[in-house]
């Protein structure tokens, strides 16, 4: 009689399927920026990023292999410990992974799902709010533009206003447009951002209020 030789999938295969994901950190805090500013939220920060922003404040996230790999069931179970039902998936660059299984389970458990992404990889997942923050260091994948609910452009130098307008032309008409000073340059650029938004009122200002509150 022939026996079936069942081989368990490797971690690499499970990660490729989005059933397990590298978690740099996960924590319950207050969303400090963008549309959901002030909302309590559970942040899931996935390890791994290949975008390479020079001013990145989470460079330790870049190397995915440094972080423990957890099943989506475990990730959701950990989120359920806290009373809030808003989840923000961030990174690193979360769209390096297939986010369909994680967001499906989060929604089954009653979570509102948000993502913060540079859009540098093909879109996946079921999200209630997509915050798209394009970076000059790696071109966004075209699949992000129709999905973006919010376009958040970090202003690090004067050329970033033009970069912001280029992307504003590509998102849906209802997409909310925000300019956010890069934290280390905030004092230098804030007056220019204020003047820009007053003259271009389709834009709003986003501040990293969690940094003022000294919370993660
Ligand atoms: S996309 Fe985000 S995590 Fe990646 S380098 Fe840029 S700021 Fe850092």
From TrEMBL:
Positions that bind S-adenosyl-L-methionine: 55-57, 92, 133-135
Function: Catalyzes the complex heterocyclic radical-mediated conversion of 6-carboxy-5,6,7,8-tetrahydropterin (CPH4) to 7-carboxy-7-deazaguanine (CDG), a step common to the biosynthetic pathways of all 7-deazapurine-containing compounds.
Positions of the Radical SAM core domain: 36-216
Organism of this sequence: Algoriphagus sanaruensis
Protein's name according to its UniProt entry: 7-carboxy-7-deazaguanine synthase
UniProt entry keywords in alphabetical sequence: 4Fe-4S, Iron, Iron-sulfur, Lyase, Magnesium, Metal-binding, Queuosine biosynthesis, S-adenosyl-L-methionine
Cofactor descriptive note: Binds 1 [4Fe-4S] cluster. The cluster is coordinated with 3 cysteines and an exchangeable S-adenosyl-L-methionine. Binds 1 S-adenosyl-L-methionine per subunit.
Family to which the UniProt record says this protein belongs: Belongs to the radical SAM superfamily. 7-carboxy-7-deazaguanine synthase family.
């Amino acid at each position: 009689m022939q026996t079936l030789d069942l081989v368990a999938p490797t971690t690499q295969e499970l990660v490729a399927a989005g059933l397990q994901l590298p978690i740099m950190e996960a924590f319950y805090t207050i969303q400090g920026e963008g549309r959901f500013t002030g909302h309590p939220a559970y942040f899931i920060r996935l390890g791994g990023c290949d975008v390479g922003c020079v001013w990145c404040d989470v460079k330790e996230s870049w190397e995915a292999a440094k972080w423990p790999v957890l099943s989506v069931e475990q990730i959701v179970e950990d989120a359920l410990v806290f009373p809030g039902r808003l989840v923000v998936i961030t990174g690193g660059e979360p769209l390096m992974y297939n986010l369909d299984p994680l967001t499906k389970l989060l929604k089954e458990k009653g979570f509102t799902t948000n993502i913060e992404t540079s859009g540098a990889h093909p879109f996946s997942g079921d999200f209630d709010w997509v915050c798209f923050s394009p970076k000059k260091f790696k071109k966004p994948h075209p699949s992000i533009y129709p999905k973006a609910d919010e376009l958040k452009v970090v202003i690090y130098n004067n050329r970033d206003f033009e970069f912001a307008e280029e992307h504003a032309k590509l998102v849906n008409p209802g997409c909310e447009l925000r300019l956010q000073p890069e934290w280390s340059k905030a004092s230098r650029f804030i007056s220019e951002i204020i003047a820009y938004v007053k003259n271009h009122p389709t834009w709003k200002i986003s501040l990293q209020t969690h940094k003022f509150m000294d919370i993660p």
